[in-house]
Specification:
Layout lengths: L15 H7 L5 H11 L12 E2 L9 H8 L21 H14 L11 E4 L2 H12 L5 E5 L5 H10 L2 E5 L8 E7 L11 H13 L3 E5 L27 E6 L12 E5 L2 H10 L7 H12 L1 H29 L12 E5 L9 H13 L2 E2 L1 E2 L10 E5 L4 H15 L33 H6 L8
Parallel strand pairs: 1-10, 3-4, 3-5, 5-6, 6-7
Antiparallel strand pairs: 2-8, 7-8, 9-12, 11-12
Length: 450
Amino acid sequence: MSGGGAPAGPGPALSARGARIAAGVPGLLDGGFALYVADPFDRERNPEGIVNLGTSENRLCFDLIEERLTRPDMDCLEPDLFQYPDTQGVRSFREEIAKFLTDYARATKELRPEHITVMNGCCAVFATLSTVLCDPGDGYLIPAPHYGGINSKMWLYGGLQPVHVPLSSEGIRVRVLVLINPNNPLGDIYPAQLLKECLEFAHRHELHVIMDEIYMLSVYDDTTFTSVLSLDSLPDPERTHFMWGFSKDFGMSGIRVGVLYTRNHEVQKAVNQLAVFHSCPGPVQHVLTQFLKDRDWLDNVFFPTNKKRLKEAQNLLVDRLADIGIPVLKSSGGLYVWADFRKFLKSQTFEAELELWQKLLDKKLLISPGKAFYCYEPGWFRLVFSDSVDKIYLCIERLQQMLHTDDAKPVVNNASSTADSSCSPEEDSSGTPSNTPRDDASQIKNILVF
């Protein structure tokens, strides 16, 4: 090294891209979950731990899954399952997924396994699609409130920015429309006609559509669910991409298996290049294949029992919340309710919402604040009901202890009575919740698309 100056200091440890990723701040959902993992409630070992009704997991049917896993077909593992797999997914697994989705999504045409890519969770599907459909700095259109975890997945890999309906954003090139059906966190379902209108809108503006139907079979009332796969014709099939997984409908969030179905050959070719980083173990694919093949068990045991238990748990949580003065938005699907805590805020601000959230955490109760879902009005929280009766009662007990203390009593003359609220509770006099996919999607047309 020449020259008499001081030696240069060490270079940066990370690339610019690595530094951008490292600088990312965990979202509220991730932060709350990290606190829960460090101090989880257990009736025997940690009764003062955090009760988690914030993470959307179905814990109602493990007994059914456990029994099914003991049957002989689950143990018939072939040697090739322990070798390097097809990164697109084991062929026999993709064939069963195609048959399953054809039947349970009521597809108008038989789905083809070659259009399916299997990855380790729907987060991986979002991440890879964001990379192959968009360039860094591009935007995706999404009705709010929505599952906040999507933003980090689309940003980490693809560098994408959300454009929230009903807000418009100038200067961002929008490339994708993301729809979650049933909606998370509202639990509402897109009517068939509205779904078609959204697809027509995307087609007119040459947008890709990512259709997230991960709660497709977690509908617990008589509302008709319309899968995008069941529509007679799509305005733009080459730009319509369907995703689903085992986390919610099968109560297997720890298995980490997500499914992408796309008819676009170029998109799938690009996705499959990245799938090598997101593949699922062969034995896991084998076990899930046995679940999908057993239609007698699915139709007569698992799905009817799951639906019944979801409805019972939802009714229990809604009724107990009503007992302590907390109304909820009417819902039909998903594992959660959207609850109105506005009257418990000291002021109608997101700062007051986060203050209330922190007080609940101090009482060892984790629920999810509306800010984590990009709700445009403070005071709404998502509570997951797909857990044991004991956990629901304990949740209500801790809620009651915190909300009805002197410093958290309902505030008089607050925004919960205003007529133009962005989220209206179930007993609203209009009879129709105002913050449903119907209203958000109708405002998609007002967004400027570049």
